[in-house]
């Protein structure tokens, strides 16, 4: 197993609200660990991701519900659908289908940037406005892109 992340953190995921940004770093780390897990490790890596996702989504769902965030229903529903998929994959992994966990990780890599860019960025803006009466400030490092 390589030490090089298959799903590395990128500043493009920063939204300017530290609690969300910190949780997103953990999300990326958990998905990367799931991708890189051996068959012997995949069950534990999937369980770690599931625990992270439950806490991550519950935190955001709570902010949206308590703060009466306008787009909360769609956002909360998307979280629930991801968790339903995670639970289905956990059942399949328990039956010995380890590759399905890696397929889930790849699906999460495809899903996450759009979710963060559209749904979570709106939530981050809402949270910053409610707490500081302003908009998020995001400073991103220039990243070298290899082709």
TrEMBL record:
Gene3D superfamilies: Hemerythrin-like. Belongs to the hemerythrin family. Residues 17-125 form the Hemerythrin-like domain. This is Hemerythrin. It comes from Thauera phenolivorans. InterPro entries: Hemerythrin (IPR050669), Hemerythrin-like (IPR012312), Hemerythrin-like_sf (IPR035938), Hemerythrin_metal-bd (IPR012827). The keyword Metal-binding applies. The lineage of its organism: Bacteria, Pseudomonadati, Pseudomonadota, Betaproteobacteria, Rhodocyclales. Keywords: Iron, Metal-binding. GO terms for molecular function: metal ion binding. Pfam families: Hemerythrin. PANTHER family: BACTERIOHEMERYTHRIN. The keyword Metal-binding applies.
